[in-house]
Design brief:
Blueprint (H helix, E strand, L loop, with lengths): L1 E3 L1 E3 L2 E3 L6 E6 L4 E7 L3 H20 L2 H17 L1 H12 L3 H18 L2 H4 L3 E7 L2 E9 L2 E5 L7 H12 L3 E5 L6 H12 L7 E3 L4 H9 L5 E5 L2 H13 L3 E5 L4 E5 L5 H13 L9 E6 L2 H16 L19 H16 L3 E4 L18 E4 L6 H4 L6 E4 L5 H10 L2 E2 L1 E5 L3 H10 L4 E4 L15 E2 L2 E2 L6 H7 L1 E9 L18
The structure holds nicotinamide-adenine-dinucleotide.
Amino acid sequence: MRSIQHFIHGKPFAGSSGQFADVFNPATGEVQARVALAGAAELQAAVDSAKSAQGDWAATNPQRRARVMAKFVALLNANLRELAELMSREHGKTVGDSIGDLQRGLEVAEFATGVAHLLKGEFTEGAGPGIDMYCLRQPVGIGAGITPFNFPGMIPMWMFAPAIACGNAFILKPSERDPSVPVRLAELMLEAGLPPGILNVVHGGKDAVDAILAHPDIAAVSFVGSTPIASYVYAQGAAGGKRVQCFGGAKNHAIIMPDADMEVTVDAMIGAGYGSAGERCMAISVAVPVGEETANRLVAALKPRVENLKVGPYTAENIDFGPLVTKAARDKITGLVDGGVAQGASLVVDGRGLAMQGYENGFYMGACLFDHVKPSMDIYKTEIFGPVLSVVRAKNFEEALSLASDHEYGNGTAIFTRDGDAARDFASRVQVGMVGINVPIPTPLAYYSFGGWKRSMFGDLNQHGTDSIRFWTRTKTVTARWPSGIKAGAEFSIPVISR
Ligand code: NAD
């Protein structure tokens, strides 16, 4: 059986923890590999390697660092199909979707090629008599990234591309469920000219994460995953004096106004609700039609489309989405759907118990559509993270706005309307971090920043865009006065700008 090792100082690293996890092929249900899990000793090896390399890397001028990133972009483009297939084999999503995953990450690496410009500091000539003041952006040192299973290419690149371009060494702890692509990314960075030690990959679960959080030489931690773990990592990391940003779960609402173009809206609900089997933090999981008539038209149009969605292995042609990542995930989602029925929601399309011919052991589940979901129900409160769309009927715009604003999560939301006033009002008032107007998945591009509000995000600086440059650097402000501007004599009062 294939064995997946850590990747430390430019080489595979077996480690000695004696702990391993199975890596499944969700399409067939088979165990296809074993991944080594790290404990404190493996993490220490990664930190030692990072420490030995980081100083020289930080001293390499930013344009040279950018060239490594540009070469990495070219190599990733050249290897896109191979990496996408590797990703689909461990994650289960379609190859087209895996290509999209890699491309969105690659865009962040492209953004990071602009690091020489992005790191330019501020300068004030003559801030006082003969005094200049300027601000430097210096790398934090060693950063770590802890990433979820659902975007094994994009999310590691969200983190390591800006962190490394800024002059840091980076330790990536990817999801143990689909660990192969992150290692391939590190290999490609090495091939692009990155010195060994600047990007190390340690695999693992809670033990590896706790070792990262406890390590005094790791200055900054970026986390993406579920909200309970995000809040734990934030609290532990911050208590240890680290800079921490943690991105958690979601329950993204789409508000459908009576004047919305129903054909466009239904296409949007299908793609954003069921793409990648709903295993996206920006998936639409709640549709909120405004008014009974809008709701009736929406559900009537959605039902046949949901019934006809094609589920299958990533190797099949023309499928809409693949299996769930694990059997446990499928069982959990099926249990939530059972609960929704028991609590009185109408299950308009039931995808439970899907048997896939020839792939009976795969982790498949068909698409589910609920109507008449109430805010008190568990299927509304919980992040399901599966192919389940819930329709919550709202009486008017204000009620729809409150639903999106009052939910504990605030990652993404969207409004479908032809009314510019309503769209503008919604975008301005809704208590959610990323808003789409007739755009179902409003994931910001690499040069903007990505992040939710409320319990979808802990910390203050977002992923990518200029926020990432701030997160992965420390500001140093220098006040300089040269001898010709210095008058003799000690000053005992606090210096102020003279009037
Ligand atoms: P997860 O929280 O189970 O795992 C995330 C990471 O934490 C993994 O690397 C995992 O190994 C580690 N981990 C797991 N249990 C841990 C524990 N007890 N202590 C310390 N570390 C632990 O999340 P997942 O199932 O891999 O990913 C899906 C979740 O990620 C969903 O909730 C989804 O909404 C969220 N997500 C959020 C965003 C965002 O940007 N807000 C993006 C993608 C995914």
